[in-house]
Amino acid sequence: MAFTMHSHSGQFCPGHAKDQLEDIVLHAIKVGYKTIGLTEHMPRTDLADLYPEELTPSPEASLASLAPRHTHYLTEALRLREKYAPQIHILIAFEGEWIRSSYGALIRSLAADPAVDYFIGSIHHTRGIPIDFDAAMYAQAVTACGGTEEGLFEAYFDEQCEMLREVRPRVVGHFDLVRLFSAAPGRELRKEWRGVWERVVRNLEVVRGYGGWLECNTSGLRKGLEEAYPKREIAEEWVRMGGRFTFGDDSHGVAQVGTNYARGLEYLEGMGVTELWTLERREVGGGEAELVEKSVSIEEFRASLRLEWT
């Protein structure tokens, strides 16, 4: 029973992704997914948080469009859930944007919508600066954190810890995204940056404490990293703790659905992981549904895929 718990469309992430949301769902069915979590980015509320492509023709217009777009997204997601229910199980979610602590209240408010099944807790900014947009912005974030990558990593995991404690996401997105533009993304944190590693372990313990899941996110592989998120030493520590993994392609268009799934599954199996976790909506009567955690063996996951395993 293959699935993704992390996906995006160009319809609701214009300039950031490609393709209509319905086309994403149709392609997910084609490649053998049995469940897809729709996780468009949540709206932001400050002009300072817009990305470069959102600044034209008008930053104010771009910012004003974000909340209505989220409402439209939920409406479309509900339509698609009903339309394709016989073919695929659709979960409706969003990717949280913890840019600063003031976003916590908005994340909780959006998560309370009855249409929303879960949300992904993600950090894309440190000190308010995007860390995964391009190398130039990453360098700005390094400067804002004292001028060293070690300082940036420490700040990133401190802000992540605040997010984890405040909103307790069921799914923690790309746990170590901060390494994407690092000069040495494969650096052994445990040996080289003791303070960073202590923060990593602390954050994993927080997630384990409230019962959250780490996603094995294969997008890092298509962006040139040698390992999926999280990197091996972090994943091994999570396994040692008895933590659970979910799985996601973090696709930003039809072409990325299922990208590097073979490598991601093999990566987890190499650490002794045999099962992945997802959610299932079950009707309880009166139009109500409950969410149930569901374990899927990697063997079963792989068997349902119809991908070219290259």
TrEMBL record:
Its EC number is 3.1.3.15. Transmembrane segments: none annotated. The keyword Magnesium does not apply. SUPFAM superfamilies: PHP domain-like. It catalyses: L-histidinol phosphate + H2O = L-histidinol + phosphate. Keywords: Amino-acid biosynthesis, Histidine biosynthesis, Hydrolase. Pfam families: PHP (PF02811). Pathway: Amino-acid biosynthesis; L-histidine biosynthesis; L-histidine from 5-phospho-alpha-D-ribose 1-diphosphate: step 8/9. GO terms for biological process: L-histidine biosynthetic process. GO terms for molecular function: histidinol-phosphatase activity. It comes from the Eukaryota. The keyword S-adenosyl-L-methionine does not apply. One of its GO terms (cellular component) is cytoplasm. Residues 5-219 form the PHP domain. Belongs to the PHP hydrolase family. HisK subfamily. This is Histidinol-phosphatase. It comes from Parachaetomium inaequale.
